Amino acid sequence: MKFFIDTANIEQIREANSWGVLDGVTTNPSLAAREEGSYKKILEEIADIVDGSISAEVIAQDYDGMMKEAHELIEISDRIAVKIPLTKVGLKAIKSLSDEGVDVNTTLIFSPMQALLAAKAGASFVSPFVGRLDDISSMGMKVVQDIRTIFDNYGFDTEIIVASIRHPMHVYEAAMIGADIATIPFNVLEKLFNHPLTDIGIERFLSDWRRANKQF
Fold first, then answer.
1. Which domain holds residue 37?
2. Tell me: the pLDDT tens digits for 7-32?
3. pTM of the prediction?
4. Candidate list 83, 88, 120, 142, residue with the active-site label
5. Does the annotation mark 83 as catalytic?
6. Domain total in the chain
């Protein structure tokens, strides 16, 4: 499974990339609004750091506006996947961009049928938002599981990005289901390292070493 980081914070991206496990980045207008500099500048910096897919979202809600902004985004880097929400207008833009060979990440997916529509329109990625589904007492990971089954049934190449991840169990469950990608906030990525037995084991090794007064 690929690991993307869900942020527009350059320092977080640099740090996560240094761990050697980062495959890409997802951003959106809300994340970019928290950072200094223009959206274009942020995306250029990300492209310089990460050698992988970078999802960047359009703001426009009309077809012509979506297409215009999408073409502006892919001029920044040929590794940008254009994020477009699953609406009727969005689906039309997804089809047009996919026909042009542009990678599209269909966002704000909350049902298997929405994911199926995006895949049929040629989207490279679909992003089910599991955390937001959990927030309304719906089973976010069950939606991911159903999308995986449907895509496997019909041989779709569209990759599933598990998004709106809130905790490490979301990452674990995504991996067990067979999702292609998890896009993970920085604070959750840090938690993937943690296990109390690892901490205890390191302290025990160091204690034994100090007690034996050994030299490296």
1. 2-212
2. 999 999 999 999 999 999 999 888 99
3. 0.94
4. 83
5. yes
6. 1
